[in-house]
Design a protein that fits this description.
The structure is a homopentamer. Chain A is an all-beta fold. Chain A is about 0% helix and about 45% strand. In chain A, the strands form two sheets. A five-stranded mixed β-barrel of chain A has the order 1-3-4-6-5. Chain A has a single domain, classed as OB fold (Dihydrolipoamide Acetyltransferase, E2P). Chains in contact: A-B, A-D, B-C, C-E, D-E. Chains A and B meet through strand 1, strand 2, strand 3 and strand 4 of A and strand 5, strand 6 and strand 7 of B.
Chain lengths: ~100, ~100, ~100, ~100, ~100
């Protein structure tokens, strides 16, 4: 899974019928301390994540293994909202 | 999903039989404001997207989860045409 | 799908039994004008593509969605031979 | 599979219901001698791996091919804990 | 498929039960002439490949399409041992 930060939202009227009502958030990958790196991508939110949250996203067919995304043309899903990360015995990120 | 801009079209007479009648568009990835980055790729259009549109593409097996692409040898599909993107409380892209 | 140019051939006597008789071509990715970039990879040819042809390849499980590759341990297939590409209203590539 | 080192842990209260009780570890890719390179990612631990262990992770749908991850929205799993690696006739890594 | 060179071996006592008896080799990607580039990865050997051999590996779900890897948590398999490669009418690699 990718550690990523929610940075924005998308609005799309014209979309595959299976995406009706889905929340599509913009994310950017982060390192193990929540620092941004890499390019933005979009994932379906199934957990009511908020802007600024650090989350985990599952990709590919695994992105369809939630009740909300099953059978849909989506390849990334937010499947966890991170409370905290710990590396080397130290907390590197804690949700505010 | 990848945020991408439609930049062109492909014509291919010799192709897998399941691709007959499919529209194959050329796209380039963009960032969360619609600025191009990265290399061109090709996706099946299922939504009558136009040149210059910003869209979302789903990849891998998820690219086959539309009525049009089911069971076909395609690994990318346009599954949403973006109206606008919002990052940090500001609109970073709006469809003209 | 990846736009790619066919640059060579492979011969492999020792291979998975499902690959018997399959033509495995060497390709390199190109941009939207057919200019090479990126590293070589190998795909199964199902369309009798020739050296120098510009083609589209589908990857991952989508590479198994042709009659020839179904159920085989292959992750890339040539599923279209490109006639021409058009970007910004201009033809950027035309098959000779 | 990716050779990777376990560097940390994640805690997430809000997550997909299928992830309840799953251990989500932070890893970084390593080369064939265990030297770190590349960005951190998260995988499900099914083998009680410890911080500092060198492991192998399987990705994509293959990450769901363990009893613990079957049907879950996860795209990476630790499926082996490495005892040692050998390259060019020399041991490049040995578990302490 | 990736062209790759077998450079080493792994030993792992603790592993998913479906991997019992599987040979896990270390590889590095090569270009179309067998020159190394890119980072090491690990694939299941189903063809008794040897150190120094140039091989093809299939990735993702395609890595599970051999009798030996079916249903296992592995995402890369050696499915061909290369005899020779030919690019531009010249042999760029020949197995010794």
């Amino acid at each position: 899974m990718q550690i990523a930060k929610v940075i924005g939202t998308t609005v799309a009227t014209i979309k595959d019928v299976k995406l009706t009502g889905r929340k599509l958030l913009i994310l950017r990958p982060t390192d193990e301390a929540g620092a941004l790196h890499g390019k933005a991508y979009v994932a379906v939110d199934t957990l009511d994540a908020g802007i600024g949250d650090l989350v985990l996203t599952a990709h590919g067919s695994s992105g369809r293994m939630t009740d909300i995304t099953a059978g849909s043309p989506v390849d990334a899903v937010i499947m966890a909202v991170i409370d905290h990360l710990e590396v080397g015995g130290k907390v590197t990120y804690r949700k505010e």
